[in-house]
């Protein structure tokens, strides 16, 4: 396996011994921060968790400010938090990073940091669901489910077991593959998964990396998809899924070969500009965290029978179905519910180059644009565990 967790190791090794002569315990530190009183009251509803945090070593708490909680005022999800202690614990656990990570440890290359969220009802990522941490300009930003962002407003508040960063939004626990496809308008993929009876597999297989073609990608080769047998469609979909490896931009290196669920291999190519390709398709929105791994949105449907890697001179993805032509209607969407969200991850601002990075750096693709809209933000806020409240 060619993956390397360079950035993560760098962070983990940074864990420094705490000088506790001047630091207070978690309770005292939280109480002394008046802008964290909402978080403090939610934590007090989870006495087991606060006890665990007080005795844990080397943690980083991403602490939503009262202003962050105020944005949720009046939503059903906020109500749900008060009524469902399991959901509350999961959400709070997702706000605790495993390790002491100071603001200075976070660079303009995205790192994917494990949290204490390991409960299988909310996450199927071995070692804990992650958040993406990245420095953009002079702002320290964390991306959670649906690429929703939270920015650090007060960094490096020390306490005995680690450090607290105050953030301006409540994080979103990553959603299932299906709910993420709904929110990201990946309706053709969703329909294709349904047509092959693969939704359960996509949602429940732990530790997956999924390359998700856009609706336009399916549409542009519609003629080739029209008469496929279910088995053929299933093989094509299986060629988009890697099981047992969650490959974030920080670990997908130039030349990496990934074995897919269908058996065939995919090749990652990174060009001189840092643009990432999987075979000849371009990754246009990387690192969409999902409950059981990560989704990278790509601009072409991959073909298990046409496995060429991108050429170094490629400037955009190339279709892998020669001779196929586009169709009027997006394939596999007939009879499907229309997405209620007006989110298009391919819109302006998305894309691998949207974070500032050193010229010539090819190891990072950075964070893409958030998918949040008012509607999806509220409905999806607490991710997988909240699905029952929002009617998916
Ligand atoms: C922190 O405090 C504990 C108990 O008060 C003490 O045993 C430990 O040596 C201290 N650690 C440091 C690094 O000062
Ligand atoms: C912190 O507060 C919680 C409950 O609010 C309590 O269970 C815990 O013992 C306290 N920890 C310390 C170190 O005071
Ligand atoms: C946050 O605290 C303020 C002031 O105590 C309170 O009015 C508000 O209801 C709290 N919000 C939540 C979400 O608990
Ligand atoms: C915290 O990290 C330090 C340094 O890596 C390590 O020595 C210590 O055992 C860790 N503490 C806990 C509770 O894991
Ligand atoms: C934190 O990470 C360490 C080392 O990877 C692991 O042993 C430990 O179980 C993790 N803690 C939690 C609460 O996940
Ligand atoms: C994790 O996988 C199990 C089955 O292996 C499934 O029951 C559970 O719903 C999954 N959790 C999430 C959050 O999708
Ligand atoms: C961050 O940068 C902006 C301009 O790019 C500047 O106005 C602001 O003061 C900076 N903030 C900090 C904390 O340095
Ligand atoms: C955070 O999300 C908001 C909208 O949800 C967006 O306007 C803003 O550009 C995002 N910031 C970053 C750093 O991604
Ligand atoms: C927090 O702890 C770090 C590491 O021990 C130290 O460098 C820093 O000065 C401390 N910050 C404050 C405000 O005490
Ligand atoms: C990636 O690998 C290809 C093929 O070996 C090479 O042409 C290209 O320059 C490499 N890209 C980077 C950024 O090193
Ligand atoms: C899913 O597929 C079944 C047939 O396998 C079909 O009856 C159903 O309408 C499809 N659902 C959606 C949302 O496309
Ligand atoms: C979803 O994608 C389709 C096909 O590309 C597009 O026509 C539609 O406007 C998109 N819907 C939303 C809500 O963005």
Automatic annotation (TrEMBL):
One of its GO terms (biological process) is macroautophagy. The keyword Ubl conjugation does not apply. The keyword Magnesium does not apply. Residues 353-369 have a biased composition (Low complexity). Gene3D superfamilies: FAS1 domain. Residues 309-369 are annotated as: Disordered. Residues 323-347 have a biased composition (Polar residues). It comes from the Eukaryota. Residues 23-171, 173-302 form the FAS1 domain. Keywords: Signal. InterPro entries: Adhesion/Biosynth-related, FAS1_dom_sf, FAS1_domain. Pfam families: Fasciclin. Residues 1-17 form the signal peptide. GO terms for cellular component: fungal-type vacuole membrane. This is Fasciclin-domain-containing protein.
């Amino acid at each position: 396996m060619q993956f390397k967790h360079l950035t993560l190791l760098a962070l983990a090794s940074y864990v420094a011994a705490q000088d506790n002569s001047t630091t207070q315990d978690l309770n005292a530190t939280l109480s002394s921060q008046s802008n964290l009183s909402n978080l403090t009251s939610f934590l007090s509803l989870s006495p087991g968790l606060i006890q665990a945090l007080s005795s844990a070593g080397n943690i980083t708490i991403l602490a939503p400010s009262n202003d962050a909680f105020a944005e949720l005022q009046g939503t059903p999800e906020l109500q749900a938090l008060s009524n469902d202690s399991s959901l509350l614990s999961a959400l709070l656990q997702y706000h605790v990073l495993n390790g002491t990570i100071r603001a200075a440890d976070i660079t303009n290359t995205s790192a994917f940091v494990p949290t204490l969220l390991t409960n299988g009802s909310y996450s199927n990522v071995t070692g804990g669901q992650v958040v993406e941490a990245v420095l953009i300009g002079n702002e320290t930003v964390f991306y959670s489910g649906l690429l929703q962002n939270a920015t650090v407003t007060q960094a490096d508040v020390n306490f005995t077991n680690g450090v607290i960063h105050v953030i301006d939004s409540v994080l979103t626990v990553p959603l299932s593959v299906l709910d993420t496809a709904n929110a990201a308008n990946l309706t053709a993929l969703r329909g294709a998964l349904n047509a092959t009876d693969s939704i359960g597999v996509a949602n429940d297989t732990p530790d997956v990396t999924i390359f998700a073609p856009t609706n336009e990608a399916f549409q542009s080769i519609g003629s080739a998809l029209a008469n496929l047998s279910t088995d053929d469609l299933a093989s094509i979909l299986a060629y988009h899924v890697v099981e047992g490896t969650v490959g974030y931009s920080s670990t997908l290196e130039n030349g990496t070969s990934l074995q897919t669920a269908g058996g065939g291999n995919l090749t990652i190519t990174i060009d001189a500009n840092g643009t990432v390709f999987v075979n000849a398709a371009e990754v246009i929105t990387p690192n969409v965290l999902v409950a059981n791994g990560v989704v990278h949105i790509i601009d072409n449907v991959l073909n298990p029978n046409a496995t060429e890697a991108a050429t170094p001179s490629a400037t955009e993805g190339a279709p892998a179905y020669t001779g196929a032509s586009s169709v009027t209607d997006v394939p596999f969407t007939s009879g499907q519910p229309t997405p209620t969200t007006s989110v298009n991850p391919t819109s302006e601002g998305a894309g691998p180059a949207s974070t500032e990075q050193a010229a010539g750096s090819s190891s990072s693709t950075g964070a893409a644009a958030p998918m949040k809209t008012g509607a999806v933000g509220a409905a999806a806020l607490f991710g997988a565990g909240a699905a029952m409240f929002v009617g998916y």
